[in-house]
Amino acid sequence: MAQPQLAGIKVVDLTTVVFGPYCTQILADLGADVIKVESPGYGDTFRWSAPAPVTPSMAPGFMALNRGKRSIALDLKTAEDLAVMQDLLRDADVFVVNVRGKALERLGLDYEAVRALNPRIVYVHCVGFGQDGPYADLQAYDDVIQAATGTATLLPRVDGDPRPRYLPSLIADKVAGLHAAYAAMAALFNRERTGEGQCVEVPMFEVFSSFMLLEHLGGQTFDPPCGPVGYARQIDPLRQPFPTADGAISIVIYTHDAWDRVFTLLEDPDFIAQERFNVPGGRAAHQGELYSHLASLTPNFATVELLRRCAAVQIPAQPVRDLGEVIDDPHLNAVGFFTRREHPTEGAYLEQAHPVKFSSGSAAPVRMPPGHDEHGAEIRAEVAARKG
Questions:
Q1: Could you tell me if 331 and 274 are in contact, meaning their C-beta atoms sit under 8 angstroms apart?
Q2: Is-contact 11 345, C-beta < 8 A?
Q3: Nearest residue to 129 (alpha-carbon basis) of 114, 145, 113
Q4: Domain 10-212+330-387 has CATH 3.40.50.1110
Q5: Who contacts 269 (Cβ-Cβ below 8 Å, separation ≥6)?
Q6: Within 10 Å of residue 181's Cβ, how many Cβ atoms?
Q7: For a surface tag, which of 102, 177, 208, 349 has the fewest beta carbons within 10 Å of its beta carbon?
């Protein structure tokens, strides 16, 4: 019988909030046995990140990021619980940790100490900044990474409001979590070929700098620079959703001939036929004027009519939905993206499916998000059985 891709892989997860837990949830979704090690008392701080309807420590964000895991509470400052942690690591395949390096050394859980317990382990260290640079010991959260990478200056480039602002998403944490997940799997693949474990460092600052500067390094890509930073198409203040008679719509015009099709479906083909738009480079040079005129035409149509017309001539378009309306999206519901489940303590909740589908291998049975130390006795018994 086909098994999940990571069936048989044991992951010890000493992470909190988003960066590390997003990585380990991906591994759990793919079939790994993820043991979430939490501190006694409050556990993962993200348990308390927003109001919860039943148990205060089961906040929506925690529910979304911690399915598929087992929870054990360990006080790693005590010899007894540290010994349990060491026993867990002795036969683990992956250790994911977001504790800073000096604290790990004090606990005896730095890479060299863990490798002495288990030479084959893949040790994934989720850090704020690369440990070879001057920021090595600094704390990092999504906000400071958005600030340090220049991301907080993107919105001012678009709307002219000079105040630096964060993108309203934990985007740096989540991007770093994705990098940590693929890095762990790459190291596991390397271990299959060589038999050797390794330490993998995933620094959020470097990860997110790479992510944002892929397009936004812009003219500084060349030496000397050939233009300003920023990808002009993304920071164009006029390239925004267009108003309709009953809402707003996203219409993407990416090729030369797409402009002709769009103005035809908007019933103004004469506008795009003007000479200045039909000389080499004319449409790029007058892009702002094109967007402005398009925005003056779209309010003449209802959103559903524009969607129909765009689809008929193969122009990408989607309605602008309110965040709260996405849950009713017909495509997401058709593909089973949202599943209503009954948690044993929290009641009914919506779970989001792992978005990647494989043609080979079965889906992993999904554990529900764990209560704090929910599996502590079970995991301790497993450790004792292996030792005995």
A1: no
A2: no
A3: 145
A4: no
A5: 260, 263
A6: 21
A7: 102
